[in-house]
């Protein structure tokens, strides 16, 4: 996944997609340049493939192609960018038709009683088994994001781990994009003991994430935690635990700017949600 290959067809294809998607109105010239630099980086990073949906796991929450603009202030812009970013990279990297691409985010949407009941059972099972590990995660001041694509490919904070290299991303200057074209690659793991310590500390939790197909876990603040089971673009579903303030309602935005479509109270401190 992290082979640095210059694939011009990918770069050209994504550049064409950004023009076709029309850069959002909130893109300044500086932000546009940062995003195009990220496009070039992705083109160097991901080898070309003709397999349909080969890179779909890289679009899931907090994965490599789920780019987040940390410096955007308006929630509507954060949500709009999630869709824009999915469209730009999806057109180039997923090898599907335009119609298929537009319907992909809907795989995370559940409006029926049966699928919601199945989701709640999975949530209950994960929370019961991961309870002690989630407490350790919450108390760990050095860890705020755990994402897992596979046991060998995962993200801790802003570092992406693979068997051959670690890539740490730094937010871009103007939009705060993560990932961005501002990064550091490490191939000698002995040089980064602090990063390998986090890998060891999170191993048990990541094992349970794999068992229950949890895409990512992210701290909301010093108390609350967002556990995202799946999602594409702005369509996520999961559970927020240890929520201590007024419960959100449909139409409110979560901590990364995505609008809640469904909120269901599970306990005094936990709620199931779906964003859309």
What fraction of residues sit in β-strands?
15-25%
Uncertain parts: 1-17
**Average pLDDT figure:** 92
Strand arrangement, largest sheet? 7-5-4-3-2-8-9-10-12-11
**Number of continuous helical runs:** 7
Helix content: 25-40%
Order of helices and strands: HHEHHHEEEEEEHHEEEEE
Rg (CA only): 18 Å
Give the total of beta strands. Answer: 12
Shape descriptor reads: globular
Main sheet properties: 10 strands, antiparallel
Distance, first to last CA: 29 Å
Q: What structural class is derived from the secondary structure elements?
A: alpha+beta
Describe the 3D structure.
- The chain is an alpha+beta fold.
- 37% of the residues lie in helices and 19% in strands.
- The protein has helices at residues 8-21, 29-45, 75-93, 98-103, 113-139, 193-201, 203-212; strands at 68-69, 145-148, 154-156, 159-161, 166-169, 177-178, 183-186, 216-219, 225-232, 235-241, 260-265, 271-275.
- The strands form two sheets. The protein has a ten-stranded antiparallel sheet. Strands 1-6 form a two-stranded antiparallel sheet.
- The protein starts with 7 loop residues before the first helix and ends with a strand.
Fold topology:
Blueprint: H1 8-21, H2 29-45, E1 68-69, H3 75-93, H4 98-103, H5 113-139, E2 145-148, E3 154-156, E4 159-161, E5 166-169, E6 177-178, E7 183-186, H6 193-201, H7 203-212, E8 216-219, E9 225-232, E10 235-241, E11 260-265, E12 271-275
Antiparallel strand pairs: 1-6, 2-3, 2-8, 3-4, 4-5, 5-7, 8-9, 9-10, 10-12, 11-12
């Amino acid at each position: 996944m992290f082979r640095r290959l210059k694939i011009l067809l990918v770069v050209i294809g994504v550049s064409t997609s950004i023009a076709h998607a029309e850069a959002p109105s909130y893109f300044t010239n500086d932000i546009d340049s940062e995003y195009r630099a990220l496009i070039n980086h992705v083109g160097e990073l991901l080898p070309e493939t003709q397999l349909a949906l080969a890179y779909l796991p890289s679009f899931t929450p907090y994965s490599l192609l789920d780019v987040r603009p940390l410096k955007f202030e308006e929630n509507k812009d954060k949500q709009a960018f999630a869709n824009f970013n999915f469209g730009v990279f999806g057109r180039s990297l997923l090898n599907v038709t335009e119609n298929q691409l537009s319907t992909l985010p809907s795989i995370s949407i559940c409006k029926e009683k049966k699928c919601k009941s199945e989701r709640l059972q999975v949530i209950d099972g994960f929370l019961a088994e991961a309870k002690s590990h989630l407490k350790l995660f919450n108390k760990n001041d050095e860890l705020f994001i755990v994402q897992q694509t596979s046991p060998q490919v995962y993200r801790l904070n802003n570092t992406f781990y693979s068997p051959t290299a670690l890539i740490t991303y730094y937010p871009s200057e103007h939009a705060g994009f993560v990932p961005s074209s501002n990064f550091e690659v490490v191939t000698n793991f002995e040089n980064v003991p602090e990063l390998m310590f986090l890998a060891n500390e999170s191993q048990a939790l990541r094992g349970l994430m794999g068992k229950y197909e949890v895409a990512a876990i992210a701290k909301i603040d010093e108390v609350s935690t967002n556990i995202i089971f799946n999602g594409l673009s702005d369509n996520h579903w999961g559970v927020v635990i240890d929520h201590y303030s007024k419960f959100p309602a449909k139409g409110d935005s979560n901590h990364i700017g995505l609008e809640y479509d469904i909120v269901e109270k599970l306990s005094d401190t936990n709620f199931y949600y779906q964003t859309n």
